[in-house]
Amino acid sequence: MSAGTGPDAAASADGAAEAPSRAARLVRLQALAGRTVHGSDGKTVGRVRDIYPLDARGDLAALTVMPRQLSARSVLIPAAALAEPPEVVEARGAEEPLTLVVDAATAKAGARPPLTLHATPDDLARAADALGLDAPGLDAPGLDAPAPEDSGPQR
Predict the structure, then answer these.
(1) Which helix H or strand E contains 106, and what residues bound it?
(2) How far, in Å, CA of 60 to CA of 48, rounded?
(3) For 126-131, what is the mean pLDDT?
(4) Burial environment of residue 95 by CB neighbours within 10 A (0 to 12, 13 to 18, 19 or more)
(5) In the β-sheet with 36-38, what is the strand arrangement from edge to edge?
(6) Residue % of the chain over a pLDDT of 70
(7) Are 102 and 88 within 8 A, CB to CB?
């Protein structure tokens, strides 16, 4: 594949920069699965299990983190809890841990993910509240009616 023809093509024919396609963003978000997550105190929270896209744009809404490999409990971590924007996190190597703005104990005590494997705006607000965070952007356009292919986490 030649440069400029893949899903991450950075420039259009007229040379203007364009945002990565939804498919390219989803592929990069899926690469977060399995990454280690640390609290702000440097202690391990667990590993990313599921990725929840926000809407048809393919932006990150939340992650589910499993504290231990065989743990039955996982927690819903809204994107607002990441210490760095998802674009910065995605660009780092797969071995680099994700860091949260809350400590590991707070994150581990967070809200459980929904049983439906679809995070609604209420679920995201509840998860942010459980971590003591404001959740900006939860009333962004598109949250009320996600596309059918966005009905659950990306694995």
Answers:
(1) helix 104-108
(2) 13
(3) 95
(4) exposed
(5) 75-78, 60-66, 44-53, 36-38, 98-99
(6) 68
(7) no
